[in-house]
Amino acid sequence: MPDNMKYILVTGGVISGVGKGVIASSFGTILKSCGIDVTSIKIDPYINIDAGTFSPYEHGEVYVLDDGGEVDLDLGNYERFLDITLHRDNNITTGKIYQQVIERERRGDYLGKTVQVIPHITDAIQEWVQRVAHIPVTAENTPPRVCIVELGGTIGDIEGMSFVEAFRQFQFRVKRENFCCAHVSLIPMPKSTGEPKTKPTQSSVRELRGLGLSPDLILCRSEKPINHTVKEKISNFCHVAPEQVICIHDLSSVYHVPLLMEAEGVVKYLNERLQLNISMPRPGRFMQKWRNLAKRVDNLRKEVNIALVGKYTKLEDSYASVTKALQHACIASGCKLNLTYIEAVNLEKQMKIDDPVNYHKAWQDLCKSDGVIVPGGFGQRGMEGKIEACQWCRETQKPMLGICLGLQAAVIEFARNALSLKAANSTEVDPNCEDKLVVDMPEHHPGNLGGTMRLGKRKTYLEPSLISRLYNKEVIEERHRHRYEVNPEYIERLEAAGLRFVGKDETKTRMEVATVDSHPYYVAVQFHPEYLSRPLSPSPPFLGFLLLPVVLKPRSRILRAAGRRRRRRGRGAGNAYLFSKPAGRSRGTVAV
Ligand code: GLN
Fold it and tell me: Which of 25, 65, 45 is nearest to 121 (CA)?
């Protein structure tokens, strides 16, 4: 297939978890700033077909795409950094490739041949990458010019071998000027000597070469900045020029990573290596949006304490998108996020007897917070704790944002305490409960867990309310991932008692947004707004949630000064940023 697509393969060496995903996304950010349309593919060499059946304990959150694909959370990084919309095929797993090859074999496509890893699996991988790379990922449907392929895991992993071999062949299939390899490695600095050590990088580059791939760029992650001699040492031992070694030390925020990479000459190198024909950007104004963003994040001072009442609180990645969405809203509202994870079970009454220390600690954390998030989740454990948190927020006028299971908990709480339906529950928790406030939807197929939920982007029709003002729209689209819904039989009674359903689906039978009018910010949504939040375009329910504690809290010196400046300019008091339009892709003016 003639192909002018440019591919950047990002591999990892030494250990995983050093920020390969952020570095890969940063390549995209830099190229996008040069006016180049970028797409990305994440390869996860595990056997699962997709991330849908993953436990958040093990892998972190399951990220959901517009098309309902349940994918690795790294795709969230790409969508947020590049402001693009990916598809389920942008996430490749060993399971998907083998499934395709086995289906072809059953159909007889291989004409009696022995089906083997080389060439059949490796061919299938290359075809998949080439096909998906051309799919547009922007709202304007522009064809991408560069595809960033991130290979999960580290070089040398058995499960990644067929992918490495596929790319060894791929570099010849697409030609040298269309393919380059960036290897992300680690430079440890052992405490005993404090010196940066290059040996692990040398070994992993040797391993990569042994498998037939030569790194064009070696990106060295380290705790502290690395000096020039180390760069030269890597250059000498790894057979690359010094300008091909990029050092990325720990930075104050991820938004600095593309800026540092740019400063290290990534644009110039890629321009030449991939013949991109970029007219070199003038220093200074280039990537100004990112510079401003990074600066703003560094200068957030006024702290806001948010409690997240969850179930998978041991692994912070379990709530990666919720945390990011909170951060985006914080950037927009000019405050610094202080996030406390509360194990929902610890709020339950039984814990007062079983584990009083953690019970009181959990309640103390909840009471100290300026706002509470009750995120999505599955199963029975912690549900009562989430219901307790909802009740406390509703009764004490504390800002609360409930997401998916959070909405279901809020509805059950309201039924129990405002309608006195003491036996109200969800059939997910208690299939035989007396008052089934939350019931399973027809889409729910017990026995088959993968991909059987109400998934992906769907429309919600909003009634005039705080939430429609935040979105500044009557029809919104957000991503879903659930099996259960509010039982339509109880809607009338719930609404009569003050729980208003101000967002519904097109059939008007599925409840999407619930609010309590007598409360400053009690918002619960059946969808997951966190997936569409972007650094420069925060999700409206999160922004509303954050604005309130910021407005209600006594003002900091900085905000008072900002107010004085604004008054001098005749724009009235108030936080200069709060009530103006957030920069970037606009989701409407916030008017709360
Ligand atoms: N477990 C609930 C359901 O399936 C909520 C799902 C979620 O929070 N994502 O409906």
Answer: 45
